[in-house]
Amino acid sequence: MMTLSVLTAAIAPGIALLSYFYLKDRYDSEPIGMVIRVFMFGALLVFPIMMLQRALVLGFGENPFVFSFLFSSGIEELLKWFVVYYVIYKHVEFDEPYDGIVYAVAVSLGFATVENVIYSLLNFTSFSNLLMRALLPVSGHALFGVMMGYHLGRAKFQPSSEKKHLLFSVGLPVFFHGVFDYIILVSKSNWMWLMLPLMIFLWIMGLWKVKHANARSPFRAVRREDEIKI
């Protein structure tokens, strides 16, 4: 019974955050089957990434800066980006800028959910610890996904600046994920004083990107015309 409770507590934050960002799609919701498929792709990334990170740490050591920005954020965000780019970017369902956010958040939370389950089963101490992980690593992955998806949406629907936004779509998540990990690794006692303003900033920026991605939807004008006719 305890194991089931821990599993539920570990899985729930990822599902809740994915539902939140999915429902933020105001004009043309994505097929739920496609979203679940991308979520599962993210989940499948966990084990190869863990093995690769372990091999790199054993081979090159665990320098906090190198681990945070290369072995952790670099590998994780780059592989999540490849999934979204090669599976979704040219797909017919990616038909408005906000779709990039939906799919990037889905792959990010697939990864974060499995990672959270593994951590919870191996290192469970209390449910307050699981709550802290929901507020920090899991929501962090979601917000890195928002950054990635926003710029993928800009890249696809603004061909004149595609290369710039493709670079931002991987560069920004890698940078902020690296900052997140570096704070945890280096600031042993006062890390929360650095993490709190970072998370507030990420949420403010994430919600801004959600709003502006929706505002760029080509279906927005169609919705307004339908409302006027009604």
Automatic annotation (TrEMBL):
Parts of the chain that traverse the membrane: 6-23, 35-53, 65-88, 100-122, 134-153, 165-185, 191-210
GO molecular function: metallopeptidase activity
Enzyme nomenclature, EC number: 3.4.-.-
Bilayer topology term: Multi-pass membrane protein
Organism the protein comes from: Paenibacillus contaminans
Protein name: Protease PrsW
Enzyme class label: hydrolase
GO cellular component: a single term: plasma membrane
